[in-house]
Write a structure and sequence with these properties.
186 residues; alpha/beta; Rossmann fold; six-stranded mixed sheet; 4 helices; 28% helix
Length: 186
């Protein structure tokens, strides 16, 4: 990477608008953990983290869940701009036996939701009894894959801007930013 590109990435963070501080994120994760615990503590859930965005959120959220659970990860993207939910490019497929399991899928953001919807459909097809979703951020707009689509557990609703931090990236960087930031002017 050229020094000028790295400087641009540093500058993007320096100029970004902070939409949620780390304290805001911690409060949202605490609330989500309480809701997830109330719903799943007796269900022996299998928790899948969607890579790469879900890594930061899952690491912080799972540590707040004080009940037995299994964890795993998956990595899928949509082929091109296809809107058909079954057209996934699996980088890492689910490996656990899903038969009659309750599955919780954790990701960083619900933007349009095409990939998340397709992942959940695939997990159901593979035999999961119930598939639930948890995202830190629900982006407010009307372009959802399914009108009115929401995750089962949501940390916060954020305006429709280019976001990074807490798993969301800017050009592959700043997933680790402490809070949720919006790119200046976007």
């Amino acid at each position: 990477m050229s020094p000028s590109v790295l400087e641009e990435i540093k500058q993007a963070y320096a100029e970004a608008d902070c939409l949620a501080t780390q304290s805001d994120v911690d409060a949202a994760l605490d609330r989500m953990a309480g809701e997830i615990t109330a719903r799943l503590q007796d269900s022996n859930p299998l928790i899948y983290t969607v890579m790469n965005g879900g890594l930061i959120v899952a690491g912080q959220l799972i540590a707040r869940l004080n009940f037995p659970l299994e964890t795993a990860y998956l990595h899928a993207t949509r082929y091109g701009h296809a809107l058909n939910g079954n057209l996934l490019d699996w980088r890492v497929r689910p490996t656990q036996d899903l038969q009659d399991r309750t599955v919780l899928v954790i990701d960083d953001i619900l933007d349009e939701g095409h990939t998340l919807a397709a992942i959940c459909a695939n997990l159901r097809q593979e035999g999961a009894r119930e598939v639930l979703t948890a995202v830190l951020v629900h982006k407010r707009h009307e372009r959802k894959a399914i009108p009115g689509m929401r995750a089962d557990f949501t940390g916060m609703d954020i305006e429709d801007r280019f976001l990074f931090g807490c798993g969301m990236d800017y050009k592959g960087y700043w997933r680790n930013a402490p809070g949720i930031f919006a790119l200046k002017g976007h």
